[in-house]
Every structure is written in structure tokens, then in C-alpha cells.
Design goal:
Structural class: alpha/beta
GO cellular component, one term: membrane
InterPro entries: Dynamin (IPR022812), Dynamin_GTPase (IPR001401), Dynamin_GTPase_CS (IPR019762), Dynamin_N (IPR045063), Dynamin_stalk (IPR000375), G_DYNAMIN_dom (IPR030381), GED (IPR003130), GED_dom (IPR020850)
Shape: elongated
Family: Belongs to the TRAFAC class dynamin-like GTPase superfamily. Dynamin/Fzo/YdjA family.
Number of helices: 16
Main location: cytoplasm
Helix content: 55-70%
GO molecular function: GTP binding; GTPase activity; microtubule binding
Order of helices and strands: EEHHEHEEEHEEHHHHHHHHHHHH
Largest sheet: 6 strands, mixed
CATH class of the largest domain: Mainly Alpha
Amino acid sequence: MFLEESRSTEKTTTGTRKKYFPLRSSLPPIASSPRAISLAIQRGMESLIGLVNRIQRACTVLGDFSGEGAAALPALWEALPSVAVVGGQSSGKSSVLESFVGRDFLPRGSGIVTRRPLVLQLHQVEEGQPEYAEFLHLPNRKFTDYSLVRKEIQDETERLTGKTKQISPVPIHLSIYSPHGERTFGVLTKLDLMDQGTNALDAKLYTILELCRSFDRIFKEHLDGGRPGGERIYGVFDNQLPAALRKLPIDRHLSIQNVKKVVSEADGYQPHLIAPEQGYRRLIEGAIGYFRGPAEASVDAVHHILKEIVRKSIGEAEDLRRFPSLKAELAAASFEALERFREDSKKTTLRLVDMESSYLTVEFFRKLPQEVDKGGNPASASTVDRYGEGHYRRIASNVSSYISMVMETLKISVPKAVVYCQVRESKRSLLNHFYTQIGRKEGKDLGKLLDEDPALMEQRQQMAKKLELYKAARQEIESVSWSR
């Protein structure tokens, strides 16, 4: 059996039951019975394992264990089959290897401890022979004390890397010889083996953060187009907002009766001399005030779409289904963040509307066509009836043109503000506040977030019992078939 421990960012943990037989040098002839075929396959695997073990040792001696550099040739080592134990720093790789052997022989501590790959080969010897370990770099020395094996691994590592935290790709070859060929090993994690330098709180926190990142990734895919949902936000800007602006009662606000009333009230006891500027301003400010409603409605519509995407994303995150408490906390934190984004967006969009009424574009009115008299000259105030219906109709027309210009401006600026304050922020910092709260929680509170659904736990237990029943039934069926 050949096992290799290496460093990686992935986590791979498996559990199985394996029985090792003495190595043989040749394949047996093919037999006719199923039992003989099974034995032939096992012996063939033993022969293959022995061959790979010898090739691995040769690669280590000759330095052909990894290709380094862009111009390096492919290494034979990389083509050899092996069972690799991979995982992040302090994730329990050494514990998995030790579970194969059934002995504690690997260095432990905080930080990076295993700084060279460890190639572990297991050999079964005859019953009654002693169990011992042997290093490839010390071929004539047999270790029966596994504490000395641990020390030799540390010493051999420091011979190549020194006492620094450097990492080397040069493997350490260790062979274990034992008459006990049957091994049972399971899944070991940081929580199962609490050694010095291992923190259960970090493991729980890491699990929670990984689940949160999975949800956040799905949420962003909905917004960016990888999943459905984000296109509805564009529908708010392209359909809902323009339709709401068209339904505003601007025509009623600029009726002749209302224009005359507003202009008269603005003039007071002193009628305007040339143009009713105060009347113009009041009419424009009143019309622009109607735009606040559609702007707020756009903010609320996008807010409801984002909340729906959050619900859908949580439902699509399969890993979260096991943890209802974490799922509820995650949904509450997301909705709270979206509510903050909505308030900021509403303030910004309403500020855009107020800006249009606080300072009017004077150039627009200067470019308006002036009324001319019969001689082709601009009409003076004395030649125009300031109190006639035509005068008020012209005021309403000018204000309507200005309001149309403002409306087109808001059709562009309001979506920009909504996307910036809500969509963009939800992609960037939807869970930032939640991460801060999680970091302040104690181990007990973090454990509650990882409590599984009782119904799911009961279902798992039932499935485990059913699996054992099927295994027992299979054994009974096989025993009957062999007896025949």
C-alpha cells in the first residue's frame, strides 16, 4: 500500500476497510469459479502494488519525484498511482495517515509542521514477526519505537530545509512492516483530534464561512446573468419607471385654470411686469414633486426583487439545507442588509429629484421661441395680453417642455442611483455585517448555527439502518449462491 501526504487547498477524506496480503511477483492463472477470480484479482493488485512501491523508491533515489520549471520533463513519479491525503494547513492530513497505520508517529504542532511529502508504504509480513518501520534513506535500520520514527521525520526534514518554515517537494520514504494486514480507518477531522495548535472554534467558523460564500456566489450568479432573476431589475428601469412617469397628472397640473391660479398667487398684489418668473418656478417645482413617487417605487421594486433572489439563492444552496438555524440567520442578515441599501438608495434618488427643482436650467428658457408681432419683431409686454388665455397657455407649454426634459434626465439618473446603491452594494457587501457578527460569536453560539434539522438526522439514521439491513441480506444471498 502506498500513501502520500502533500499540501493542497482541497479537502479529501475517505473511509474504507482494506486487507493486505503478502506481495507476490507473478499473476496466478485465471480460474473459473467466482471465488477464484476474486482471489486472482486480489493477487494481481498485490503484484501491482509491489511494482509501484519499487518504482516509487527508485524515483526517490534518482530524484525523479516532481517536474520543476516550465522546461522540465514530466516526472515518472507523477504518472504512478497513489492514494493521496490532501487538505489545508492543520486540517488533519497527518491524522488520516496515522489511522491507516494505527500508530502515532507523525510530528505535531501549530502552523506548518509537515514540510515535506511523506510517502507511506504498508507491507504485511508473516504472523509472529515483529512490527517495524524503515526509512529509504536509512535502509539498514529498523525502528520499533514510533516516537523515534517521529523524531527521524523531523530530523530528516530539517536536514534539507533547516529549522525554518520552508517547504520542500523532496519526499520522505517510510515503509511500515506489520503482520496485522487488516486495517479499519474512518474520517478524522480537526474536531476529532484536538492536538496542540488545533482550534475547534476555527473549524466551525471555517465551515460557516464556506457555506455563506456558497450562498453569496449563487446570489451573484443571479444578478450577473448566470442564473435567472437579474433581468427583472432591468425590467423595472425599462418598463415600470417610464410607465409610472407617463401616468403622472402633469396635464392636470398645467391646465389653464391651475396655471392662472398659481401665477396669480405668485404675483400677489403686484402683477408681473414682463414674465411671471415666480409663477414659472412654482409650476415647475410642483410638477417635479410628482417625480418622487415613481423614484421611490423603483427603489422598492428593486428591493423586492433582491429579496426574492436571496430566498431563491438560499434554497439553491444545497449545503445549507442541513443547517436550518444558519439558513434562517443568513436570510435575516441578508434582508437587514438589503433594507439598509434601500434606505440609502431612496435618499439618493429623492435627492436627485430635489436637485432638479432646487436649481433650474436657465439656458432652456433662453432658447425657447419668442412670440413675434405682425412686423416680425419680438412682441413686447405691452402688445401681449398678460391676462389672456393665450398667455397662460404659452406658460403651460413652456413649463411642459421643461418638465419633459427633466423627466428624460431622471429616466437615466434614477436607474444609475438604484444600481449603485442597491445592486452594486448587495454584490459587494451583502454579508459583510453578518461576517462581523459571526466573528464575535463564541464556540457555543457557532455550534448552534450548525445544528442539523432533526428530521434530516432521523432520516439519516433510518437510511443507515436500512443500509445495514441490505448488507446483511446481501451476505445471506451470497452465502446461498456459494453453497450451490
